[in-house]
Amino acid sequence: MVATLLKPTPEGVKTAADILRGGGLVAVPTETVYGLAADAANPAAVARVFEAKGRPRFNPLIAHVSGLDMAAAEGRLTASAASCAASYWPGPLTLVVPAAAGGQVCELARAGLDTIALRQPSDAITQDIITALGRPIAAPSANRSGHISPVTPGDVQDELGDRIDAIMDGGRCPLGLESTILGFNGAQPALLRPGALEREEIEAFLGAPLSGPEAGGPAISPGQSPRHYAPNAALRLDAAGAEAGEVFVGFGAVAGDYSLSPDGALKEAAANLYPLLRHLDRTHDRIAICPLPRRGLGEAINDRLRRAAMAAD
Question: Residue 194 is inside which H or E element, if any?
């Protein structure tokens, strides 16, 4: 079976919503990466997501919503969480909040936790699909668990084309890096995963620093697996140059065989990260990457590279 490629038209949106309503799986575009969508209220459909990805069931999924009203029906938003949603939704920000009583998102999508991860993506086609379905979609990245996240329909076809029903063709995802995840289940907001929305901007908005998850603690949100976003090729970070058998990736003034951004632009580097890793993984066994700034989007880029470089168990 090869996943059907749907066009981003009203007919395509209706077909996607019908597939989801019937318990099927559809890969959908977002501004960050492609997500593997299922009806979040259907435990059997959500189970298919875990199976298709090879994802452990203790790892919760993000529920994508059409807006604040749908989010409020699924989670108990604190004043700070609601303020962040009002300012940054639709966009690359996921909020982890206490689950609301009577919400439609099934317990399996929450991995049995008493919290829920919520996001409103900005891609218009995916917003239309959620609206047509009339309830949230559970949509982790549309790749096999631990692999490089997909930013094009072709990436999804390569990863999951024989395991899912359809792919909505939304072209290349513009940001190319997953959402930032904030937790609002403690004394102060916590940065659970750095992402496409910068820590500095959020802290300036909240007027306070963000805490972080406890080291070595259990996964309390999506995107906390130690090894993730990984190519098959060995990855060496903070390299001054290539060693024998390596391809070297530069940034800014650091020249290499390839560059994440010749101009030293972190936004460009974030958008190029996964496509370049995917390309080099097809052609090389060893990849070396020069040091990258850790400020702004560099925090999220370095987070992805660190996890991608971890040795497999």
Answer: none
Q: Is the pLDDT of residue 51 over 80?
A: yes
**Which ranges in the chain belong to alpha helices (H)?**
10-21, 43-53, 68-74, 79-88, 124-133, 153-160, 199-206, 266-283, 297-309
* pLDDT value of residue 228: 75
* Pairwise CA distance, residues 307 & 195, whole Å: 14
- Dig out the tokens for 166 from the structure: 């359809």
What residues pair up with 145 in beta bridges, in sequence order? none
For Cα atoms 199, 203, 208, give the angle at the middle one, nearest 5 degrees. 140
Q: Do 159 and 53 form a contact (C-beta atoms < 8 A)?
A: no
Pairwise CA distance, residues 58 & 225, whole Å: 11
Dig out the tokens for 285 from the structure.
């066994």
Structure tokens at 257: 């065989």
Sign of CA dihedral 56, 57, 62, 64: positive
pLDDT at 186: 75
Please state, in angstroms and as integers, the Cα–Cα distance from residue 215 to each residue in 95, 112, 219, 229, 289, following that order. Answer: 20, 21, 10, 20, 26
Q: How far apart are CA 297 and CA 88, in angstroms?
A: 16
Q: Are 24 and 166 in contact (CB under 8 A)?
A: yes
Instruction: Kindly calculate the radius of gyration of the chain based on its CA atoms and give it in whole angstroms.
Output: 19
Burial of 44 per CB tally in 10 Å (0-12, 13-18, 19+): exposed
DSSP 256-296: -SEES-TT--HHHHHHHHHHHHHHHHHH-SEEEE-----ST
The count of other CB atoms within 10 Å of the CB of residue 312 is 7
Burial 166-186 (b: 16+ CB within 10 A, else e): bbbbbeebbbbbbbbbbbbbe
Tokens of 290: 């020069």
pTM for the model: 0.94
**Tokens representing residue 109 in the block:** 């999508």
Of the candidates 257, 246, 245, 260, which has an alpha carbon nearest to the alpha carbon of residue 291?
260
Number of other CB atoms surrounding residue 78 within 10 Å? 15
Cα distance between residue 104 and residue 265, in whole Å: 41
